[in-house]
């Protein structure tokens, strides 16, 4: 689905200050930040008291999301969406438009039609979700009356174009198939 021209927002870059135009102060500022982190990491490593957060991604993946902070479990990570299936493998969504109405980023587009099944009136013929426009607020899953849309723990979604990042119904159902073992919070 091509993005309508009216939905594309062009953002102008803010003008550089004289200091930024000179570049060198910013370069030294950046080097200072790097040095600060280097010293901090080396201190932790030498002290042995704290586990380093860096890892060899993608060979090593972070599976302990949600992160623990100060020993407390924080079960609120919100990653890529999935459209859930019901017990019969059908899309659970009943095309009620509650999620798209609640979405503050207007990134869900649904086309509903009469359901071919007796147990519901409607189902989504089309269900597109723009993952680049989404702000991962979780309002859609809060609004859904039938637990059809959820945000998973999957965090490494990539695409080579904007179009690729617009997840259609099949792609969202495929995310469900790939993440069905893990119930999002
Ligand atoms: S997480 Fe928020 S912004 Fe993203 S689709 Fe859901 S309601 Fe919209
Ligand atoms: S995902 Fe849920 S809230 Fe959104 S249209 Fe489908 S049933 Fe309604």
List the helices and strands and how they pair.
Elements: H1 18-22, H2 24-47, E1 68-69, E2 72-73, E3 81-83, H3 98-102, E4 108-114, E5 122-130, H4 139-143, E6 149-151, E7 166-167, H5 169-179
Antiparallel strand pairs: 1-2, 3-6, 4-5, 5-7
Tally of helical segments? 5
Question: Which CATH architecture of the largest domain would you pick?
Answer: 2-Layer Sandwich
Q: Could you tell me the radius of gyration in angstroms? A: 22 Å
Overall strand count: 7
Describe this structure in words.
The protein is an alpha+beta fold and 185 residues long. The protein folds into two domains: 18-54, no CATH class; 81-179, Alpha-Beta Plaits, CATH 3.30.70. Helix content is 27%, strand content 15%. It has five helices and seven strands, in the order H-H-E-E-E-H-E-E-H-E-E-H. It has a three-stranded antiparallel sheet. The chain has a two-stranded antiparallel ribbon with strand order 1-2. The chain has a two-stranded antiparallel ribbon with strand order 3-6. Strand 1 and strand 2 form a beta hairpin. The protein is flat and about 65 Å long. The chain binds iron/sulfur cluster (SF4) (2 copies).
